[in-house]
Design brief:
This protein is mainly α. The chain has helices spanning about 1-10, 15-25, 35-50. The longest helix has 13 residues, at about 35-50.
């Protein structure tokens, strides 16, 4: 369901791992610097779409 919502927002394919990492970041289990560089931008997009832009900022 969230994948459909994100696709509607961004009109592009969102990597499943990006959604998983975003979920772990929201739950406090990971931070954005734990995300591999390859999908970090997608994870940031997911976090912003979930109204959590403060979690997308790298320290």
């Amino acid at each position: 369901m969230i994948r459909l919502i994100l696709w509607l927002f961004f009109r592009k394919e969102i990597n499943e791992m990006a959604v998983i990492y975003a979920t772990l970041i929201i739950k406090g289990k990971k931070v954005i610097t734990d995300v591999p560089e390859k999908i970090r931008e997608q994870v940031k997009d997911v976090l912003i779409a979930c109204d959590c832009p403060e979690l997308a900022v790298e320290a």
